[in-house]
Structure formats: C-alpha cells, structure tokens
Amino acid sequence: MLAAVLEPQPPVAPHPDIAHLAPLLGTWRGSGHGEYPTIESFDYQEEVTFGHVGRPFLTYRQRTRHAGDGRSLHAETGYLRCAGPDRIELILAHPTGITEICEGSLDVADGGLTMELDSTHIGLTATAKRVTALGRSLRLSGDTIDYTLRMAAAGQPKQHHLAASLRRAE
Question: Which cofactor does it need (predicted)?
Fold first, then answer.
C-alpha cells in the first residue's frame, strides 16, 4: 500500500470567521498549580499550541509536565470554533478516556480575548475517571494567557482545579 506524501503548503490566512482569534495562534509556555480535594496539590509546566489550516476553527494541543520531576501529567487535543461573534465552542479529547464539549461566551476587546466556557457534554470510557462537569476561563492580554479550570469529579461538586499563566514562546 502506498502512503500519500503531503508536500509543505504555503502559509494560509485564518478563515474570516475566526480572524478575531488570530492573537491566540502560536505556542505558549508557562507554569501552573493544581489542587483538588481527592489529590495532593502540584505544580506543573505547560505548553499549548493554537494553529489553523485555513478552515473556520483553530487546532489546539496541550501538554503538561510535573514541575519537580518532569514526568508527563496530562495532554489534550482538539478544536476551538466560533459559534457567532460572541460565542465559542471547545471540543477536546483527553488520553484518559474523556471527551469534552464546552460552550460559552467570547469577548474581544482592545486586542485581548476573554472566554468563559462550561461543559455541555462529557464523554467517558468505561475506565475513565468519573468527571461530570468542567468549566474554563481564559484571558489573553498581550503576550500572556491566564486561565483557570473548574471540575466536578470523583463525587465532588464543580470547583477550582487548575490555574496557569502562559507566555508566548519565541
């Protein structure tokens, strides 16, 4: 069987429906702190990449490592879509057997972005941790992304789980 070889393509402009999300494009790195009643608190290093292929969505890839020993902690991959001028959708797959669909508000002002997202659907494999709800807040200002993540899991109500600050990578 022959595999198709993809030739490098010239850069393409973001789709007009997501042009206002262009400030997110690129790689972001930084650190964060996690806590939850069922686990020990931890610090982590994170890398997030937003990309695009000229279609009406951004690609999203996230990876974290433990700040102390460098071991891999978590990863997510998916898509960020606009559902209108002030609405946003985030579709993610986690390697832990969880899928996540979040929807919420988008505010674009003064070159910055603010997103407030809440899960509308959580999919779980038979072996996944029992996550029942997620919420995310993200703020882009200049070359910094600050975010928080709220989670309901393991019989706990939705509450703060993660907070991080990322800077645009060179």
Answer: heme b
Known binding residue 161? Answer is: yes
Residue among 7, 6, 68, 79 at smallest CA distance from 40 = 68
| Number of folded domains that form the chain | 1
**Does 53 reside within a domain?**
yes
pLDDT (mean) for 59-72: 97
109 pLDDT higher than 70? yes
Model-level pTM? 0.91
For residue 117 the two structure tokens come to 């997202």
**Whole-number Å distance between alpha carbons of 150 and 136:** 6
Could you tell me the CATH number of the domain that includes residue 67? Answer: 2.40.128.20
Q: Residue 33: inside a domain, yes or no?
A: yes
Q: How many helices (H) and strands (E) does the chain have?
A: 0, 10
Q: Which domain holds residue 38?
A: 16-168
Quote the CA–CA distance of 148 and 152 in Å, as a whole number.
Answer: 14
> Is 114 within a domain?
yes
**Of 84 and 102, more confident:** 102
Does the structure show a pLDDT above 60 at 1?
no
Q: 116 with 137: CB under 8 angstroms?
A: yes
